[in-house]
Amino acid sequence: SLTEKLTGALRSLRGTGALTEANMADALKEVRAALLSADVHFTVARDFIARVQAACVGQAVLKSVSPGQQVVKIINDELVKLLGEGTTELAAKRPLKVLMVGLHGSGKTTSTAKLGKLLKKKGARPFVVGCDIYRPAAIDQLEILAKQEELGFYSDRVTKDVPALGTTGLATALAQNADVILFDTAGRLQIDTDLIEEVKKLKAAVTPDEIILVADGALGQEAVNVAKAFHDALGLTGLILTKLDGDTRGGAALSIKSVTGVPIKFIGVGEKTADFEPFYPERLASRILGMGDVVSLVERAQENIDQAEAEKMAEKLRKADFNLEDFLAQMQQVKKMGSMQSIMGMMPGMSGVQLPGDAEKQMKRTEAIIQSMTIQERRKPSLLNGNRRMRIANGAGVKVLEVNQLIKQFEQMQKLMKMMKGGNQQKMMRQMEQ
Ligand code: GDP
Ligand code: MG
Fold first, then answer.
1. 104 is in an annotated binding site
2. Which ligand ends up closest to the CA of 266?
3. Residue 277 and residue 87: Cα distance in Å, rounded?
4. What pTM did the predictor assign?
5. Do 282 and 298 belong to one domain?
6. CA distance 228 to 201
7. Taking a C-beta distance cutoff of 8 angstroms, is the pair 246, 222 a contact?
8. Does residue 50 sit in the same domain as residue 101?
9. Which residue intervals of 161-192 are DSSP H helices?
């Protein structure tokens, strides 16, 4: 009706409209597609979106952010909240007994050693017990890793009695003064009653404080059934999500978390024992949504820079199509927006990165260096040979060394952007830590 049209027009003029099912529809469709392509179980995706939608309707639209962007941001926050619910750390109790369960090939044995290594680094005296008696190679695998990481180890290659093996392993560990005892168990290709029965008996024998499901991060729609079966039978206390170093978006995490409510505690990001991290919900949420934190950037920027500029910048970051000219423009925006650190905090995967204290001073020098370059050089840094670098250093009143450093830094950043574009945030974080 005309009244509606008028009201609508007035609303958009004032920029104070509310979120409605209509203006949210496109964004929700996109988010739903993102969740499904991240392998989130379809019922989980549906319920999650319905919940968020209900919470969104009626909320005032923020100034200079489109309803769509606002919805993605709200969904992201909701996702972080849901993924991060519960205790994401292991119980502090000592001695601590941890049962590692999961399907065959999910990464139980590897994660057992990884967890042992991590706890040892924190000052614990971990001990691993190999309870996978069906494949001698599995016991060897654990023993080799235990030796490598200097963890206590026990297994028995002869017995067929898993609960007895567990009990003896526990006694051996305690006799050796271990304070964290990790039980690596057998898996099956699929969930089956034999497997569950055996783990139940082992549980009764060693009375673990933590029962951790180790799940392949690339598990698809079946993640829900796997998690439910283990949780119903054993009462899980935590989850380790493995193989997040690949292309997987980790939707299994959301499926499992939604269905069981069990907190995610660690993630595996590679085959080596060091490739293991505590769980950060923000990182996983942006990985699952695949939309980075672009909206936060836009939102943060809204009062100081125009939205189109912020979107252009975010888009360039996403596409890894970023030259020194953009770098300069961005720095000048950043000065208006607040500290570099807070901007880094909004970029996917960069929230943990600390900038040195003199970052602002450094920024001024960087600015001077880029300003001493020709536009052509800024757009194509590969042009910067020795002569040009010398000229730039003179122009900016800095040493050539600083020019070289800046270019190197920029190249590293470009590399990071490329990785980010590929969605490979784990690899990126490792790169940054070096
Ligand atoms: P289990 O059968 O559950 O004990 O699984 P394993 O620990 O033997 O792991 C199965 C395979 O997955 C091995 O080749 C591991 O190296 C590999 N793996 C385990 N965790 C990870 C991970 O986080 N990333 C990658 N890329 N590979 C992993
Ligand atoms: Mg194993």
1. yes
2. 1
3. 15
4. 0.68
5. no
6. 19
7. no
8. no
9. 162-175
